[in-house]
Fold this protein.
Amino acid sequence: MSADLYRDAYVGIRARLVDLDARIRERETLLTEAFWTSLEPYLRERLAELRSALELIGAESLDKLSRAEVLLSAYADELDAWIARAPALEEEWLEVPAEVDDPPRIAKSGPLLSTADGDAFVRSFNEIVREATRNIAVEVETEGWWSCVARFRHREAPFVLRASALPTESGKLAEVSMQLVTSVARATPRLVVKHEALFAAVAKAMGWRHEVEVGDASFDGLFVIQGARIDAEHFLVPKVRGFLLALARFDVPTLEIDPAKRTASLSWCFEPVGSAIDAAVRALTMIREIPSSIAFRR
């Protein structure tokens, strides 16, 4: 190959790489941080590997420049495809599932409930659930003497309530672990609200403040909020806080919004009480109905 031909190839590939660099940077500005966060790890890794070829643009080797052109062309095409798909992806993330899976069973080990206490637990759960869901079709399933599941709908929202009996060493019923779950959109931000721990209570007494509070003394004094402040303010509206405080009269619950699983759940321990179940259902219903937002493209 003559020197002139080599120089021509060199100049041509550099010019194409400059165009690719500009195209890539312009395309990247169209995609939001939420888009990059939404990608599965293997996709982020693959795109990062393609993008790393930008470091080869200044290489002296024609082989390296050729490799950069191949990789960056593939990366630019990927960006174009993701930009085109962004509106459909946003709709998918904003869709609220019409169904929800049962919460997992608590692993059972140790003593079992006595036959009498087990029968009373199942009977009590059935009665309380039907009282709390009056005028609503409900399906109740018994899984042995220590676990019951109720499935029903409230304002079109799917709900599953699991009650797990926690016995004493002698087989007597000590308390009941309750978990209520419904579906939420994948775009719903992650949020955890749980009981103020002893350490946190001491910290507050010393003047330290939670990073996230909602400005409601009764609520902030009882719950610790894990999540972004803007999300707490958006979803923990006064009515939701009121229902959580009503449920806390029986046992301080844990609220978890898990966008990866597309679920919102409330967990607490107490024997099934109709008013507690009602407060939990209303709290999760309101959270589910509060609209989320997502934008993958600017």
About this structure: The chain has ten helices and eight strands. The radius of gyration is 27 Å. The first strand starts at residue 138 and ends at 142. The CA atoms of residues 54 and 68 lie 7 Å apart.
